[in-house]
Write a structure and sequence with these properties.
Layout: H1 2-15, H2 21-30, H3 37-47, E1 50-53, E2 59-62, H4 68-82, E3 83-89, E4 92-97, H5 102-112, E5 117-122, E6 126-131, H6 134-147
Antiparallel strand pairs: 1-2, 3-4, 4-6, 5-6
Helix pairs in contact: 4-5
Length: 148
C-alpha cells in the first residue's frame, strides 16, 4: 500500500501544481488513499520531494530528485532565489542565504552529489561547504556566483 501511495504522490506532484500538504492530502483522499497529514509529511521526506519555484513565481512540490537534470534545475532555482553572497577561504565555501533558507538550499546541493564537495553543514542563513581542494572551492564559488 505504501509503495502504491508513493507512486500516486509522485504522479500527483508531476501532473498538478500542488502548493501545500493539505492540497496533496485532498487529492490523495479523492484517489482513495485515506491518510493523515503526518503520513504525507513522512512520504514527502522519504520521496525527497522539494518545493521548487514555478514559472508563475509560486512554490510547488516537485519530484525534482528523480533525474540529474531535474536535480540541477531545482537547485539552481532554489539557490538563485535564496542565496545572497558566496565567499571562499582556502577549501571552504561560505554561502549566505535569506533567513531560514540555508537548510533547504544545502539539502538540494547535497542531492546533486557533486564530487568536488567533501561535506556540507547548514544553519539558518549560512552554509559551509568543504571542498576537496582550494581550486575546487574556487570553482564552486564561480559556479555559485553565476547563479546569483
Amino acid at each position: 500500500m505504501k509503495s502504491q501511495r508513493h507512486q500516486a504522490i509522485l504522479e500527483l506532484v508531476s501532473n498538478y501544481s500542488i502548493n501545500t500538504q493539505e492540497e496533496l492530502l485532498l487529492r490523495l483522499n479523492k484517489a482513495g488513499y485515506n491518510v493523515t497529514q503526518a503520513t504525507i509529511s513522512r512520504d514527502i521526506k522519504e520521496l525527497r520531494i522539494l518545493k521548487t519555484l514555478g514559472a508563475d513565481g509560486k512554490y510547488r512540490y516537485s519530484a525534482g530528485g528523480r533525474n540529474s537534470n531535474d536535480k540541477v534545475t531545482g537547485f539552481e532555482n532554489l539557490f538563485s532565489s535564496s542565496a545572497s553572497k558566496v565567499d571562499v577561504s582556502e577549501n571552504i565555501v561560505v554561502v549566505r542565504t535569506m533567513s531560514g533558507m540555508a537548510q533547504a538550499v544545502c539539502a538540494s546541493l547535497d542531492n546533486l552529489e557533486l564530487e568536488d564537495i567533501v561535506g556540507t553543514i547548514a544553519g539558518d542563513d549560512t552554509i559551509f561547504i568543504v571542498a576537496g581542494s582550494k581550486e575546487k572551492a574556487e570553482n564552486l564559488q564561480m559556479r555559485f556566483n553565476k547563479l546569483l
